[in-house]
Design brief:
Elements: E1 6-7, H1 9-16, H2 20-28, E2 35-37, E3 40-44, H3 45-59
Antiparallel strand pairs: 1-3, 2-3
Organism: Streptomyces swartbergensis
Protein name: Excisionase
Domain Helix-turn-helix: 6-54
Length: 60
C-alpha cells in the first residue's frame, strides 16, 4: 500500500473489517479524512494507517 494510493469505501471496509455505514460515519465525523472526485469518495491509504495508529494509541 503506497502513501499516495487512494482507496474506495469498499477497499476501506475490507481492510478495516467494518460495514459501509461505519466507514461513512468515520468519514462524516472526520476521524477518517477523505476527498471527493466527481461523485466518488476516496480515502488516502495514509489516512487509514493513521486512523489505525490513533485507535491503537487511544486503546493503550
Amino acid at each position: 500500500m503506497h502513501d499516495d494510493e487512494l482507496l474506495t469505501v469498499p477497499d476501506v471496509m475490507e481492510r478495516l473489517k467494518l460495514g459501509r455505514s461505519t466507514v461513512y460515519d468515520l468519514i462524516r465525523s472526520r476521524r477518517l479524512p477523505s476527498i471527493t472526485i466527481g461523485r466518488c469518495r476516496r480515502i488516502p491509504a495514509r489516512a487509514v494507517r493513521e486512523y489505525i495508529t490513533n485507535e491503537l494509541e487511544a486503546a493503550a
